[in-house]
């Protein structure tokens, strides 16, 4: 751990993980953070003091340096004064604070001439690492392959489409169960890994904070810091510029927190954000004459954030005005007039109808043909009318591209998707063996406690020893044994009381899952539930089950039924999700005549909510919730009371009208634009190819063996990594208790306690960083026996590096590129004659001292070989730069021209989007043209 006294402004550092950033200047330091500016790449990084991956830059006597005025100095001695190095030369000195543009020599040649060399296998490991890092960065599915997720095509399509844009600002509005959160996480993950963004703020309702935190961490290994008033107050005095929101790069907080504090909202808005994510955006209230505090906060933040992701339910279910309010956040200039928006929506419906007919290969009427001729050439329309299938498909694609909201809204519906399971509801009416009325009274108290807020949980009493529901549960579990069962009820207290009752009355394997467990304990409990011989039943509280996917189970017990329809849908959604392999059996035990009986009737007969996905639950609850609560808790109202019958009838009538309105309002054109199967399937294919490739597993194993980390081999491409021994080099990616890892996606999905290793995973990055930062293989010596003639060879690893500039996706065109060059003792390039596979098989360690004792070799032959290799590297790098520049211009010219063309017919193409693309082309041109070659490693080879 670094000590805070080690950091002082104006010190020079390099990043061990990002050496291509160059030499950085320490600008600011707080008790927890250190801020470094890298002038060579115009980048700023903020690191945690305790784990900053920084290496201090210190020059030595004999080095030549420059000050800010370009005055050079040959260093004769070095002194440390007040935390800064002072370099002394003949009659002058330069302080570390006065240094100009300096570069670091990486020491490969120094190590070689000092005889500090590694064995050939270490050089081979470094060579492989450079190549793997190059392949990792240029991978077309980088940022997608690493998620612990099922490969759902429509999710990957949306993530691909949005993350490929410049400063994307979109509305993600897939229906419940289709994975809006996964889509948002995929987008964030890809943009972070590609350096397109670095600062992200996620705003969610308070009740979803934990769910989001778990989803980001467990599925994508992204650690977001939860901000609330207590955390902000603790940072007020220590944060950079006194703003807590500058203390971390990745932050998640609740909308209630920001809307309730003008000070914190102002601080959040004064911090720069590359991406703002807002969940449950349909709850942000806006009207022409009135705006809610929550909407105001998001609007303020949306104006300072470059990118914006809004997540919402089906947009129109809260009305066109509400829908317009969200579009205003995405682009206030484009969506400034509500009446214009209404008119455009009508025009889009006409276009959607035309696309529907084209897609179904139906005849077009005169009106549709006239509309098409206003967009396209008549010859093109005639080709479609004459049955040209290719022309028809191209016309559909162009209409989708030109569709206005399709540029900013993504919406997939269950009706357009496949692979959803069926829900089979099993309503189980129960009777108490005795004193039925007394049991009704007890369950009424339980119901009151469940639905009314403000009641302390520890005041609740349970009678599970004789409860008819528990008696039924024990019988049911025996009948379906060993099938897995998920049981959800309202509170942690109910879960614990139920567990105690089941444990006393049976020998069933039972496990609990609630909000007071640590994340580690939840993982362990969930893991035991997944195991074939593990727990048969998992008892979950309402909050405890959030953010978890239990799709391997097919039985859900609603021990009580939540009062709000959205909570009911959330419970069922733990199993009813796309990718579920079997039908879901939903068991609902209830005591006849109890408040739960009335509530269940309302759900079943009024909404069919147990067997069908429920849309508009929030609106339904606002209309009928108060009456439902009164009738449910009124002891004088029977389960067949006329007032209850009336409520159920009215609910069913309203629900039917709501369903029709939502169905009629479906924008089929928008749905088609939100999912293009051919593109999505290609992404899935590429990810599966990486999943099945054994290269990462082999490389990972090699690295850990090199650093003496013990790996215990387990089934399903799974390992247990033991922590480093006391004598071994520490490996920070491995916790002190060790860690289970797997390279198998299917196994990772069923075992959330096991890390899923991919090229995107932080542990993989740690392996790569450890090889580079430790100097492994940077200088090596080997003996090649059986050569045609004795002599010397030198194998060089150069790296063509571009400066890393945030927001510029340089990795698509010219990532840091390794160049392998082999020269003989005469300086001739002989790379092809000596492939690396031959060296890896035949090279053996040997003593280098005899060669270094030869003055002619050290002073003449080796420098000549190095000079020859450096010249070749410069020539090769020119070719790589030209190729990268050509690749970049070809791609961006096409993208810019497409955006300009679309802008003529689609007002949702923001001018800022085109400007960002043009600016990026200028930036990338400069980065590629100024790419520099760095000698990374040398291997000297004696041929015998």
Automatic annotation (TrEMBL):
<keyword id="KW-0010">Activator</keyword>
<dbReference type="GO" id="GO:0003677">
    <property type="term" value="F:DNA binding"/>
</dbReference>
<keyword id="KW-0805">Transcription regulation</keyword>
<dbReference type="InterPro" id="IPR027417">
    <property type="entry name" value="P-loop_NTPase"/>
</dbReference>
<dbReference type="InterPro" id="IPR001650">
    <property type="entry name" value="Helicase_C-like"/>
</dbReference>
<dbReference type="InterPro" id="IPR049730">
    <property type="entry name" value="SNF2/RAD54-like_C"/>
</dbReference>
<dbReference type="Pfam" id="PF00176">
    <property type="entry name" value="SNF2-rel_dom"/>
</dbReference>
<dbReference type="InterPro" id="IPR057342">
    <property type="entry name" value="DEXDc_RapA"/>
</dbReference>
<dbReference type="Pfam" id="PF12137">
    <property type="entry name" value="RapA_C"/>
</dbReference>
<keyword id="KW-0547">Nucleotide-binding</keyword>
<keyword id="KW-0067">ATP-binding</keyword>
<feature type="domain" description="Helicase ATP-binding">
    <location>
        <begin position="161"/>
        <end position="333"/>
    </location>
</feature>
<dbReference type="GO" id="GO:0016817">
    <property type="term" value="F:hydrolase activity, acting on acid anhydrides"/>
</dbReference>
<keyword id="KW-0347">Helicase</keyword>
<dbReference type="GO" id="GO:0004386">
    <property type="term" value="F:helicase activity"/>
</dbReference>
<feature type="domain" description="Helicase C-terminal">
    <location>
        <begin position="469"/>
        <end position="618"/>
    </location>
</feature>
<protein>
    <submittedName>
        <fullName>RNA polymerase-associated protein RapA</fullName>
    </submittedName>
</protein>
<dbReference type="InterPro" id="IPR014001">
    <property type="entry name" value="Helicase_ATP-bd"/>
</dbReference>
<dbReference type="Pfam" id="PF00271">
    <property type="entry name" value="Helicase_C"/>
</dbReference>
<dbReference type="InterPro" id="IPR040765">
    <property type="entry name" value="Tudor_1_RapA"/>
</dbReference>
<keyword id="KW-0378">Hydrolase</keyword>
<dbReference type="InterPro" id="IPR038718">
    <property type="entry name" value="SNF2-like_sf"/>
</dbReference>
<dbReference type="Pfam" id="PF18337">
    <property type="entry name" value="Tudor_RapA"/>
</dbReference>
<keyword id="KW-0804">Transcription</keyword>
<dbReference type="InterPro" id="IPR023949">
    <property type="entry name" value="Helicase_RapA"/>
</dbReference>
<dbReference type="InterPro" id="IPR000330">
    <property type="entry name" value="SNF2_N"/>
</dbReference>
<dbReference type="Pfam" id="PF18339">
    <property type="entry name" value="Tudor_1_RapA"/>
</dbReference>
<dbReference type="GO" id="GO:0006355">
    <property type="term" value="P:regulation of DNA-templated transcription"/>
</dbReference>
<dbReference type="InterPro" id="IPR022737">
    <property type="entry name" value="RapA_C"/>
</dbReference>
<dbReference type="InterPro" id="IPR040766">
    <property type="entry name" value="Tudor_2_RapA"/>
</dbReference>
<keyword id="KW-0238">DNA-binding</keyword>
<dbReference type="GO" id="GO:0005524">
    <property type="term" value="F:ATP binding"/>
</dbReference>
């Amino acid at each position: 751990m670094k000590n805070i006294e080690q950091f002082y402004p104006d010190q020079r550092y390099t990043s061990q993980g990002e050496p291509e950033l160059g030499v950085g200047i320490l600008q600011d330091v707080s008790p927890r953070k250190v801020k470094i500016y890298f002038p060579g790449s115009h980048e700023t990084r903020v690191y945690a003091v305790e784990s900053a991956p920084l290496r201090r830059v210190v020059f030595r006597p004999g080095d030549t340096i420059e000050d800010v005025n370009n005055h050079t100095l040959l260093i004769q001695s070095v002194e440390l004064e007040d935390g800064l190095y002072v370099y002394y030369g003949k009659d002058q000195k330069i302080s570390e604070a006065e240094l100009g543009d300096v570069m670091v020599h990486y020491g490969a040649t120094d190590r070689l001439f000092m005889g500090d060399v590694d064995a050939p296998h270490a050089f081979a490991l470094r060579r492989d690492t450079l190549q793997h890092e190059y392949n990792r960065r240029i991978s077309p599915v980088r940022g997608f392959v690493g998620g612990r997720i099922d490969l759902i095509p429509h999710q990957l399509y949306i993530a691909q489409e949005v993350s490929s844009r410049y400063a994307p600002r979109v509305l993600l509005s897939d229906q419940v169960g289709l994975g809006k959160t996964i889509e948002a996480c995929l987008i964030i993950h890809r943009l972070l890994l590609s350096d397109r963004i670095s600062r992200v703020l996620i705003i969610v309702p308070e009740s979803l904070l934990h769910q989001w935190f778990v989803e980001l961490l467990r599925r994508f290994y992204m650690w977001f810091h939860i901000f609330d008033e207590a955390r902000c107050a603790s940072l007020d005095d220590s944060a950079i510029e006194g703003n807590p929101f500058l203390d971390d790069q990745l932050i998640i907080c609740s909308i209630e927190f920001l809307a309730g504090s003008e000070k914190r909202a102002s601080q959040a808005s004064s911090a720069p954000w590359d991406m703002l994510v807002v969940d449950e955006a349909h709850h942000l209230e806006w009207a022409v004459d009135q705006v809610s505090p929550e909407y105001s906060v998001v609007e303020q933040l949306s104006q300072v954030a470059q990118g914006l992701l809004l997540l919402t339910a089906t947009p129109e279910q809260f009305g066109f005005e509400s829908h317009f309010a969200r579009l205003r956040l995405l682009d206030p200039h484009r969506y400034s007039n509500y009446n214009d928006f209404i008119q455009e929506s009508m025009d889009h419906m006409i276009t959607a109808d035309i696309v529907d007919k084209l897609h179904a290969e139906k005849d077009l009427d005169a009106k549709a043909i006239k509309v098409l001729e206003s967009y396209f050439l008549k010859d093109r329309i005639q080709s479609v009318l004459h049955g040209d299938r290719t022309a028809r498909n191209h016309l559909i694609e162009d209409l989708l591209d030109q569709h206005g909201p399709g540029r900013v809204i993504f919406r997939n519906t269950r009706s357009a998707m496949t692979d959803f399971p069926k829900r089979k509801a099993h309503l189980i009416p129960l009777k108490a063996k005795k004193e039925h009325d007394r049991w009704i009274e007890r369950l009424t108290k339980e119901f009151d406690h469940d639905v009314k807020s403000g009641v302390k949980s520890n005041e609740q009493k349970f009678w599970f020893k004789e409860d008819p529901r528990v008696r039924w549960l024990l019988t049911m579990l025996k009948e379906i044994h060993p099938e897995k069962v998920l049981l959800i009820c309202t509170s942690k207290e109910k879960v614990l009381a139920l567990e105690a009752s089941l444990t006393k009355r049976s020998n069933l394997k039972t496990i609990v899952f609630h909000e007071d467990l640590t994340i580690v304990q939840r993982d362990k409990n969930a893991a035991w539930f997944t195991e074939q011989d593990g727990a048969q039943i998992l008892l979950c509280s309402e909050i405890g089950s959030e953010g978890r996917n239990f799709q391997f189970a097919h039985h859900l017990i609603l021990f009580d039924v939540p009062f709000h329809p959205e909570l009911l849908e959330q419970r069922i959604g733990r199993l009813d999700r796309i990718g579920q392999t079997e039908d879901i059996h939903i068991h609902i035990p209830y005591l006849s005549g109890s408040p739960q009986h009335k509530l269940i009737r309302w759900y079943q007969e009024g909404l069919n909510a147990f067997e069908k996905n429920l849309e508009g639950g929030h609106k339904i609850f606002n209309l009928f919730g108060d009456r439902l609560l009164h009738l449910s808790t009124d002891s004088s109202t029977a389960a067949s009371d006329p007032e209850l019958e009336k409520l159920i009838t009215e609910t069913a009538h309203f629900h039917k009208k709501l369903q029709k309105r939502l169905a009629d309002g479906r924008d089929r054109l928008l749905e088609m634009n939100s999912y293009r199967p051919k593109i999505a399937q290609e992404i899935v294919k590429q990810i599966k190819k990486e999943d099945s490739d054994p290269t990462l597993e082999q490389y990972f194993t090699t690295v850990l063996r090199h650093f003496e980390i013990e790996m215990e081999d387990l089934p399903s491409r799974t390992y247990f990594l033991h922590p480093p021994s006391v004598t071994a080099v520490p490996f920070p990616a491995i916790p002190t208790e060790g860690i289970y890892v797997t390279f198998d996606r299917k196994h990772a999905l069923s075992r959330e306690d096991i890390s899923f290793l991919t090229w995107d995973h932080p542990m993989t990055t740690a392996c790569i960083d450890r090889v580079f930062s430790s100097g492994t293989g940077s200088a090596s010596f080997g003996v090649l026996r059986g050569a045609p003639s004795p002599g010397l060879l030198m194998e060089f690893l150069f790296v063509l590096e571009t400066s890393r500039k945030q927001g510029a996706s340089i990795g698509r065109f010219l990532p840091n590129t390794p160049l392998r060059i082999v020269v003989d003792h005469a300086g001739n390039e002989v790379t092809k004659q000596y492939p690396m596979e031959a060296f890896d098989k035949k090279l053996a360690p040997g003593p280098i001292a005899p060669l270094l004792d030869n003055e002619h070799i050290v002073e003449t032959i080796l420098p000549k070989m190095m000079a020859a290799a450096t010249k070749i590297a410069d020539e090769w790098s020119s070719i790589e730069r030209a190729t990268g520049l050509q690749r970049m211009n070809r791609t961006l010219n096409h993208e810019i021209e497409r955006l300009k063309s679309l802008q003529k017919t689609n007002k949702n193409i923001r001018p800022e989007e085109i400007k960002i693309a043009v600016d990026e082309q200028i930036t990338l041109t400069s980065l590629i043209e100024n790419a520099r070659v760095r000698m990374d490693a040398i291997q000297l080879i004696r041929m015998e």
